[in-house]
Automatic annotation (TrEMBL):
InterPro entries: AAA+_ATPase, AAA_lid_NorR, GAF, GAF-like_dom_sf, Homeodomain-like_sf, HTH_Fis, P-loop_NTPase, Sigma_54_int. This is Sigma-54-dependent Fis family transcriptional regulator. Residues 349-578 form the Sigma-54 factor interaction domain. The keyword Nucleotide-binding applies. CDD domains: AAA. Keywords: ATP-binding, DNA-binding, Nucleotide-binding, Transcription, Transcription regulation. It comes from the Bacteria. SMART domains: AAA (SM00382). The keyword DNA-binding applies. It holds the Pfam family AAA_lid_14.
Length: 667
């Protein structure tokens, strides 16, 4: 489709008429582009000197009927024709709309002397300007080649039109069918290539508007169903509309096609599948499957196509890609290995540890899908950073990222925070009500931290949302809908919680899409590198001079158990930078005195492998012991004890309450 400008000299036209160019295609390496168009016009029997009479014309009821068929297009372009006709030339221009047979339906003139000439050459309503009637001209050639075209002066096949310059662009309806042509014609002396750009742009805008109007006619339930299917499909799926434009595609399709985020607005079915809109539409209406081959990579798929539209016409097609090769062969393809956690949001998850890198690679592989993600990791390992990285690499990256800490709120407040509430739903409710986090996450990612702390009643409500997107605000019965990608996180053993009856098994199985475990710091072999990197970043953020850790300081760091993981390491390094007083080398003296000497053995209700047994009572006792030790060493200072444990102070208060501990008097 593109644009084309055809020009020629009067001498070249005369040579063609006398047959001097009939052998040019074999004798001359570079054949003038106009030559094949003139030859086509001659084959159609068009008169080369112009019509001695008015030529084919349509009038009366037939013209009214043609105008009625093109009413939707006329509605979109009629106000623009006056703008197109306007020109800073004394002679003026004429803008017009013709149908798919080249019959002019309506014209607009800017006035000037060209208006009379336009009538003489029959640029008037009812006149036919297809190539069979008038030879090469912008209207007829745009129809013949389905492309925007400019025909300048003697490039016109008919001598009578050598004084014209014409610019035309085809207009297609919402189903991809060519229905008309938008044209601007003026004197050849006023030729301006920017006019072709303007005409083509307006034609494309009209097409886009026709598509939007057609989509608006499709029932909202159908549109919602399409969006839901795109978001829920694990395999590659594309929604392609006329005339082959990729309207939507899910993350799996973007991954297998190796497309960058945000690029679908520039994609066509021909570019990504090597298939035309006509082929896809025909297969959808006939119920046939196709073979597709991506031109840029050579990748092959079997294509299943489903029509979306009204009756027996397709407004768009839903395209599913299936592997062309067998599963055994497909597993050997290196596509998955090429998806790596490099750059962007992944950069904050520093580390060279093999276990850590393998986890990031797995996260990057599943990030483009809409599968739920469950992060099973100890506190302080960077679960929210990982959740944000997955969101940034997902198909909903342009949507919101909404985080909720399920353990930081009481059950009543958590329900209101998640689902929202109506006005007057409870004492203290906002006067206008509140939308809630589910509404805020619509079209994006919802991150539920400390998921295991969610009360059983809310687990039931969340399960319903995950099933069909439906929920109601607190205090109202109206059902609302939200579509989002869920990422949950917990430091608890959910298998044990399910066995103990504190976490619903059906919700647990619903969340088991992708399970990722960030290794605790004590299991990583890149502590030295990580500490040096963090020290440099913290120094930069805090305005401290650039520093490095001494070998002795690194040895002390390695001897510590790091119950608070990376969060605790950051706290220790911040304190060390202050104690070092600007020294270029941070030594052992700048580290907390107790670090590595008596490591706090915080009972991690940790993430254990399935099948691994542990006594809930024993874990509770170990956790209580760790909390008591931290409080005793901190002299009853909750903030200091929380730092030692690597948890938030609010979390420590909840731990004390849950474990039934008595706070010691503060020293």
């Amino acid at each position: 489709m593109g644009t084309l400008t055809l020009s020629a000299s009067a001498h070249l036209w005369e040579q063609f008429l006398v047959g001097a160019l009939d052998g040019e295609q074999t004798a001359v390496p570079e054949v003038p582009p106009i030559l094949s168009r003139w030859q086509r016009s001659r084959a159609l029997g068009a008169p080369c000197t112009g019509l001695p009479h008015e030529g084919p014309s349509v009038g009366g009821a037939a013209l009214v009927e043609r105008r009625a068929r093109l009413e939707p297009v006329w509605h979109e372009v009629r106000d623009i024709l006056d703008v197109l006709a306007a020109a800073p030339l004394p002679s003026g221009r004429v803008a017009l709309l013709a149908d798919r047979e080249g019959v002019i339906l309506a014209t607009r003139s800017s006035g000037g002397s060209f208006g009379g000439h336009a009538d003489d050459v029959r640029l008037v309503a009812g006149a036919c300007w297809d190539e069979g009637s008038r030879g090469t001209n912008a209207i007829g050639t745009a129809l013949a080649e389905s492309s925007s075209v400019a025909v300048v002066g003697p490039a016109h096949y008919a001598q009578r039109h050598h004084g014209l310059v014409c610019y035309a662009a085809p207009v297609r309806d919402a189903f991809g069918e060519l229905v008309g042509v938008l044209d601007v014609t003026g004197p050849a002396s006023g030729a301006d290539p920017l006019v072709l750009v303007a005409v083509a742009s307006i034609a494309h805008s009209a097409e886009a508007r026709l598509r939007e109007v057609a989509w608006a006619r499709v029932a909202s339930a159908v549109r919602g169903g399409l969006e839901a299917r795109l978001s829920r499909e694990d395999g590659p799926v594309l929604l392609i509309e006329a005339p082959g434009r990729v309207r939507r595609l899910n993350g799996a399709a973007r991954t297998v096609m190796r497309l960058s985020p945000g690029s679908h607005g520039e994609l066509s079915s021909g570019r990504v599948l090597g298939l035309s809109w006509a082929a896809l539409k025909d297969a959808a209406l006939r119920g046939h499957s196709l073979e597709a081959r991506q031109p840029s990579t050579g990748a092959r798929w079997r294509v299943q196509v489903e029509a979306v539209g009204e009756g027996d016409v397709a407004l768009a097609v839903l395209v599913r890609l299936e592997p062309w090769l067998t599963r055994a062969v497909a597993k050997r393809l290196p596509v998955a290995e090429e998806v790596g956690p490099e750059g962007g949001a992944w950069e904050v998850l520093k580390g060279s540890d093999a276990q850590h890198r393998a986890m990031l690679k797995e996260a990057a592989r599943f990030a483009p899908t809409m599968l739920p993600v469950l992060l099973l990791s100890e506190t302080g390992t960077g679960k929210e950073l990982l959740a944000r990285a997955v969101h940034a690499a997902s198909s909903v990256a342009s949507g919101p990222f909404v985080a909720v800490n399920c353990g930081a709120l009481s059950p009543t407040l958590l329900e209101s925070e998640l689902f929202g509430h109506s006005a007057g739903a409870f004492t203290g409710a906002r006067a206008g009500g509140a939308e809630g986090k589910l509404a805020a996450a619509d079209g994006g990612t919802l991150f539920l931290d400390e998921l295991a702390e969610m009360p059983a009643a809310l687990q039931v409500l969340l399960l319903r949302v995950l099933e069909d997107g439906g929920y109601s605000r607190v205090g109202e019965s109206h059902v609302r809908h939200s579509r989002f990608r869920l990422i949950g996180a917990t430091c608890r053993d959910l298998d044990a919680a399910v066995r103990a009856g504190t976490f619903r098994s059906d919700l647990y199985y619903r969340l088991q899409g992708v399970m990722l475990r960030l290794p605790p710091l004590r299991e990583r072999d890149d502590l030295a590198m990580l500490a040096q990197d963090l020290l440099g970043q913290l120094a930069l953020d805090g305005g401290h001079p650039a520093s490095t850790l001494s070998p002795a300081a690194l040895a002390r760091l390695k001897s510590h158990g790091w119950p608070g993981n990376v969060r605790e390491l950051k706290t220790v390094l911040r304190l060390a930078l202050v104690r070092a007083g600007g020294a270029r080398v941070v030594d052992v003296a700048a580290l907390p005195p107790e670090l590595g000497l008596g490591p706090v053995s915080l009972a991690r209700e940790p993430v254990m492998a399935r099948g691994e047994t542990a006594s809930p009572k024993g874990l509770r006792e170990l956790e209580a012991q760790a909390v008591r030790e931290a409080l005793e060493r901190s002299g009853g200072n909750m903030a200091r004890a929380a730092r030692r444990l690597g948890v938030a102070r609010s979390t420590l208060y909840r731990m004390v309450e849950r474990l039934g501990l008595v706070l010691p008097p503060r020293a």
